[in-house]
C-alpha cells in the first residue's frame, strides 16, 4: 500500500534553551529533511510549519510558538512525516518504505524467494535484506547484474540471482 505520508525522522531531544529540537533523520540525509518548511505529526493528521538547519548528523528544528526548552521537551519522541507529493524522485529511485515487504522473485523461473525486510546503505550500492521462506536472512546487492525490475505497485522485485546468493555453493 502506497502511503500518502512517509516517516522522515524522530524528535530525540532539545538543543539550547530557546525551543529548538534535535531530530534524528530517517531520510537520505539531514540536508534533505531540513529543506522542508512543512512537516506532519500523527501520520499526516497534524500539519506543522518548521524552520530547520543541519548540525553534524542531526536536524535542528524550530516550531513557531515553542520558545523554551520545557516546551520543546514535550515533543520528544514524536515521529515526523513528510508528504509524498512534496518530493520528486528521479526515475528508478524508490522510497525505502515502499520497498519493504516486496516479494523477491526469480526473473527466469518465477520462483519466490522471500520478502524485503530492509534496505541497507553501504556506500557503493544499496543491499536488500530479505527474509527467505526458510526464515533466514539473505542479502541481495542492488546492482544491475542482479536486480532486473522493481514494481512497487505490483509488489515484486525480479532478480537474476548470482551463484551462491541463496546457498553456500561457489
Q: What summary fits the major beta sheet?
A: 6 strands, mixed
* Mean pLDDT reading: 91
Helix tally equals 3
Q: How many β-strand runs?
A: 13
- Helix amount: under 10%
Q: What sort of overall outline do the alpha carbons produce when their principal axes are compared? A: elongated
State the order of secondary-structure elements, H for helix, E for strand: EEHEEEEHEHEEEEEE
> How large a portion of the residues is in β-strands, by DSSP E?
35-45%
Q: List the uncertain runs.
A: none
Output the radius of gyration.
19 Å
Structural class: mainly beta
| Strand order, largest beta sheet | 11-10-9-8-13-12
Distance between the termini: 38 Å
Give the gist of this structure.
By secondary structure, the protein is mainly beta.
How would you portray this structure in words?
This protein is mostly beta strands and 170 residues long. The chain contains 3 helices and 13 strands. It has helices at 30-34, 69-73, 96-99, and strands at 5-15, 20-25, 38-41, 46-49, 51-55, 58-62, 79-83, 103-106, 112-121, 126-132, 137-141, 147-151, 156-159. The strands form 3 sheets. The chain has a 6-stranded mixed sheet with strand order 11-10-9-8-13-12, with no helix packed on it. A 5-stranded antiparallel sheet has the order 5-6-2-1-7. A two-stranded antiparallel sheet has the order 3-4. Strand 3 and strand 4 (46-49) form a beta hairpin. The radius of gyration is 19 Å and the shape is elongated. The chain starts with a strand and ends in an 11-residue tail after the last strand. The relative contact order is 0.15. The model has no long low-confidence stretch (mean pLDDT 91).
Amino acid at each position: 500500500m502506497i502511503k500518502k505520508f512517509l516517516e522522515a525522522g524522530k524528535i530525540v531531544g532539545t538543543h539550547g534553551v530557546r525551543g529548538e529540537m534535535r531530530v534524528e533523520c530517517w531520510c537520505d540525509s539531514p540536508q534533505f529533511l531540513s529543506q522542508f518548511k512543512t512537516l506532519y505529526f500523527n501520520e499526516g493528521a497534524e500539519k506543522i510549519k518548521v524552520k530547520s538547519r543541519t548540525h553534524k548528523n542531526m536536524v535542528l528544528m524550530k516550531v513557531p510558538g515553542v520558545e523554551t526548552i520545557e516546551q520543546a521537551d514535550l515533543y520528544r519522541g514524536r515521529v515526523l512525516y513528510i508528504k509524498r507529493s512534496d518530493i520528486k524522485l528521479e526515475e528508478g529511485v524508490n522510497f525505502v518504505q515502499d520497498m519493504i515487504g516486496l516479494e523477491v522473485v526469480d526473473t527466469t523461473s518465477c520462483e519466490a524467494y522471500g520478502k524485503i525486510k530492509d534496505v541497507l546503505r553501504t556506500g557503493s550500492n544499496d543491499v536488500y535484506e530479505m527474509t527467505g521462506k526458510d526464515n533466514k536472512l539473505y542479502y541481495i546487492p542492488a546492482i544491475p547484474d542482479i536486480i532486473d525490475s522493481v514494481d512497487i505497485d505490483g509488489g515484486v522485485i525480479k532478480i537474476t540471482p548470482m551463484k551462491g546468493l541463496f546457498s553456500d555453493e561457489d
